[in-house]
Amino acid sequence: MNPRTASPRRTRSGAIVALATFLAALFAALLLPTAAHAAEGDPYTISGNVQLDGEPLEGVALSIDGPGGVQDVETNDEGRWSVKVPEKGVEYTVTLDEQTLPEGIAVVEDTDGDGAPNVTTAEMGQGGRLTVNFFIGEGERNVTSFFDQLLQRLLLGLNFGLMLGLAAVGLSLVFGTTGISNFAHAEMVTFGAVAALFLVGPASLALPVWLGIPVAIVLSALLGLVLDIGIWRPLRRKGVGVVQLMILSIGLSLALRYVFQFFIGGDTQQLPAMVPSVSIPLGGAVSTTLNDLVSMGISIVVIVAFALWLTRSRLGKATRAISDNPSLAAASGIDVDRVVRVVWIISGALAGLAGILYAYYRPGIRWDMGAQILLLVFAAVTLGGLGTAFGALVGSIIIGVLVEASSLWIPADLRYAGALVVLIIILLVRPQGILGRRERIG
Amino acid sequence: MNWSQIFDNTLSSILSPATMGYALAALGLAMHFGYGGLLNMGVAGFMALGAYGYAISILTFGFPWWLAALVGLAAAAVFALILGIPTLRLRGDYLAIATIAAAEVLRLLFLTTTFDAVTGSADGLAGYHGSFRESNPIPDGTYGFGPWAYNETQWWVRIMGILTLAFAALVVWMLTRSPWGRVMKGIREDEDAIRSLGKNVFSYKMQSLVLGGVIMAAGGVVYALPSAVSPGVYVTSLTFFVWTALLLGGAATVFGPLLGSLIFWVIQTFLSNFLPALTKADIIPFMTDVQAGTLRFILVGVALMLLVVFMPQGILGDKKELTFVR
């Protein structure tokens, strides 16, 4: 496979920010038609916005070719540019001069697939307005070697996988002890991020990050407790079947998801930076950021602590006993209700932490961010074996690496689809998962 | 507050293609879940196949509308076969996860820019109505009364929707009263018992999955008939809304899905008109219009939770006929 055509030179965070930039620019173009260098008299507008990670880039040169001749334009201090053109319904070619971008920055996504990311050809529609944006990020202007790209992807995938793992072990524990396929787990993930937004977000309490984020995780744990006391325990007492509980969790998921939308709205919001934004080169073209390293460190520490708890502590052993055989565990004097409550608390806390790390990874907080990765978490849990916590962790890392690495071969917007196809194939060949046991599949 | 407009819109939703699309999808789901016990969480995928199959056949291949609709149904049948082979032997919640994942894969395939020329990616597809509207025998003009006054095109869409719905309901009604239907109900209650009677459980489930899937795809076609196909519609929320409609009406009934969809849309339309009107009239001043609009989806979630615990048999269902056996 030729890495040049198969994988655009792009970084994950750059593309996501660029996408957000694109949307912002779309609104900006609609609301604030500030013409930087307008050729007066022509009726139609081509405009765009050049930003990097939310910061406008000033003085980037672009040239626009089409009917009316070549026009050159530079971005203003808000990163915007726009030109007036005489005709609509025809194609214009916009070229961004990469030499005018800051060092180490490039156009990283070839939006129209012509092999030259910094050249975009687009048709001016009948609306008379055209927005052309370039996906800019920390990328190499020269094509990096395939091996370096793969290493970079593996690193990103490991980070993503560890984060998925935090969410997946909780989901898996809950399934193991109660039999619930909890679709509302996605909202427990989102809750962590939303709680963090309310605690450390600049528009609300604005606590320092070191204080606000632990408090958000405590709140997530509380959510797990509240859900257990308010919903799951009464229903357990009532003897409601697991299929009903699954559908109920779907209803809960819908309700919570729209509650989040009710409070934070439909757009993406950012948390203040956890650590300074520093890029760390790791040899060759491979690099990481301090944020990613911190995120991975937190995930690993928490997962190791969790593993020690599960294997060494009395409560952890009781949890595994209930996962194996609830009736036998109850008969041997284990307080199932109490253990299940602890499981919900831990599951909530881990999901909340995963949500916060995911908010930095994406980056940004959206009301449906948890739902976006829920199926990947389910895929991870199924891959590892439903109900086995360590299986879920192994599954998560495989899924995380797979999602990131697969974008070397398949279009980036299909990488989640690749992971879900793997989920379906796993169900075909080994439905009990990697570490699961045969009898669980029923 | 403009009460007459609120009620007009609400009553109008009774005959809306969206209601009929949901009713067909819920009917297909009744086939899967109500009568077969199959936890299909991929309703959105089946509907998307119907809608995209219809639109792409017309726009890309230039098929006449009836052939295009058949392509949509056939696509859903093939999808059901492919999906059923690995998953039908598994326990219920595995089927749920596999179907929801498969539906999401389909959505991502329709959404990706890679196939933009065929699927229109994020913009979806529109402008495929020519052939369907040409076949309209109704002369130009506005017919009907009160909230149900539509022009000839709108009536043609609604008539075809009602005919499809009536035909599908008849098929399901006859099937569930047949020996085939009794075997399906038996599988729902106790798979092993049916197996011990020498029935091929896998084959029966597969037939149910294909048939229900085709009905859902018909729902997708009807949903797409009046306006456009947009990938933003076929998200997992659509699946959950159809489930809510089904459980509301009664999962193991033929008319339950129809009644459930009707109530679902009447309430949704009413709230989507009424709640913003309340905020505009400053009766609930602590909310914005957008928040008031979001409120109704919160209510759907709460309704689904309450239904599944307190009224799992639905409005028309029989409490003795268990719908949640496992």
Précis, in short:
Chain A is of the alpha+beta class and 442 residues long. Chain A is 55% helix and 12% strand.
How would you portray this structure in words?
- The complex is a heterodimer of chains A (442) and B (326).
- In chain A, 55% of the residues lie in helices and 12% in strands.
- With 442 residues, chain A is α+β, with helices and mostly antiparallel strands.
- Chain A folds into two domains: 136 residues, Immunoglobulins (Immunoglobulin-like, Sandwich), CATH 2.60.40; 295 residues, Orthogonal Bundle (ABC transporter involved in vitamin B12 uptake, BtuC).
- In chain A, the strands form five sheets. Chain A has a four-stranded antiparallel β-sheet with strand order 5-4-7-9, with no helix packed on it. Chain A has a three-stranded mixed β-sheet with strand order 6-1-10. A two-stranded antiparallel sheet of chain A has the order 2-3.
- In chain A, helix 3 crosses helix 11 and helix 7 runs antiparallel to helix 10.
- The radius of gyration of chain A is 25 Å and the shape is elongated.
- The two termini of chain A are 41 Å apart.
- The N terminus of chain A is likely disordered.
- Chain B has 326 residues and is mainly alpha-helical.
- Chain B has one domain: ABC transporter involved in vitamin B12 uptake, BtuC (Orthogonal Bundle), CATH 1.10.3470.
- Helices cover 70% and strands 1% of the residues of chain B.
- In chain B, strands 1-2 form a two-stranded antiparallel sheet.
- The longest helix of chain B has 26 residues.
- Chain B starts with a helix and ends in a 16-residue tail after the last helix.
- Classes of the chains: A alpha+beta (442), B mainly alpha (326).
- At the A-B interface, helix 5, helix 6, helix 11 and helix 13 of A face helix 4, helix 5, helix 12 and helix 14 of B.
